[in-house]
Amino acid sequence: MPGVTKEQIQAAREADLFAYLQFHEPGVLKRDGPNYRHKEHDSLVYVTGKKYWYWNSRGRSINALDYLIQIRGYGLVDAVHTLVGGEIQQIPERRSTPEPNYIQREQKKKAFSLPWARRCATAAVSYLQQRGISSEVISRCVRLGLFYEARYKGEAVCVFVGKDDAGKAKFACMRSITGKLRKDVYGSDKMYSFCYPPQNPGSQHVAVFEAPIDALSHVTLQELEGWKWDGYRLSLGGTSHVALIAFLERHPEIRRVNLYMDNDLGGLKNARRIKAMLHDNPRFKHIRVGINPPRVGKDYNEKLLHTRGKIKDRQLPCRQKQAAISI
């Protein structure tokens, strides 16, 4: 699989899951006699004597890679990078309290900074317009600081920004304007992925997409077809549901989640997995979940381009008739 090697996958399987949870999710560990139990998944037990996790409800042991993919919803590449390095920090050696020097090194290593914005975003705006995104949607993204143009290794790229509740940038992903580059900015926090906000605050609805361009395509389709809907549009930045879980934790008012994944085997499978995960989690059982793949095309950007093509075809005879009358 591109992005990881067999050796990295094996190293991720052998990573210390207990150490990972101590460092990244310390709040989920609770004592259970001599052992530990996972607070959110009560059937996950860490057997102290044998130093492994056992998944009682599945009747088998579970390693760190299994945990991130099957329980936290990471894609394989993201999970491997999280556990063994790459662009995301390595797991520290297990200890009850991480050493201060280690934390300082990791914080310095993980510093997040947005790419330098180009003063003129002509190329990036033109790229989104070619993808069918309306000028009004692009302008709002620019005003909110969610989109701009930058350069990465001499290449012009679109930058999509994710912010926290205070409006501080925490995440950014780059999309090549002329090539195939798709890359998260170093140090990005996936819990704050790109999110296009509703026009009015207090919405109880969130639409979920795999990529920012699909989210913006959905907004443009609403403009073209006149839907009466106002909610958040969240990009997962792939197939991991980390961004969605974090979003729902920050927005307990949400009552409806619509999953607009790609209309292919991977997208549909991921949508069903996320729906089941939300249903099985006691914190989110009150949320209604719908699965809404595009009826035309692989994703919502293809659906948008198809819709624009149909509108253009309908308008062409009218224009020809008007031209004939004017002659």
Q: Main β-sheet: number of strands, strand sense, barrel status?
A: 5 strands, antiparallel
The low-confidence runs, each spanning 5 or more residues with pLDDT under 50, are 86-99
Termini Cα gap: 61 Å
Mean pLDDT: 84
Number of strands: 14
Shape: globular
Total of helices: 11
Strand order of the largest sheet: 1-2-3-4-5
Strand content: 15-25%
Helical content class: 25-40%
H/E element order: HHEEEEEHHHHHEEEEEEHEHEHEH
Q: Given the helix and strand composition, which structural class is it?
A: alpha+beta
Q: Rounded to an integer, what's the Rg over CA atoms?
A: 22 Å
Q: What key phrases describe this protein's structure?
A:
five-stranded antiparallel beta sheet; 11 helices; five-stranded mixed beta sheet; alpha+beta; 39% helix
Topology (elements, then pairings):
Elements: H1 6-14, H2 17-24, E1 29-32, E2 35-38, E3 44-47, E4 52-55, E5 60-62, H3 64-71, H4 76-84, H5 100-109, H6 122-130, H7 135-143, E6 147-152, E7 155-163, E8 169-176, E9 182-184, E10 195-196, E11 205-209, H8 212-225, E12 232-235, H9 242-250, E13 256-259, H10 265-280, E14 288-291, H11 300-326
Helix pairs in contact: 1-4, 3-4, 8-11
State the gist of this model:
The protein has about 325 residues and is an alpha+beta fold. It has 11 helices and 14 strands. The chain has helices spanning about 5-15, 15-25, 65-70, 75-85, 100-110, 120-130, 135-145, 210-225, 240-250, 265-280, 300-325; strands at about 30, 35-40, 45, 50-55, 60, 145-150, 155-165, 170-175, 180-185, 195, 205-210, 230-235, 255-260, 290.
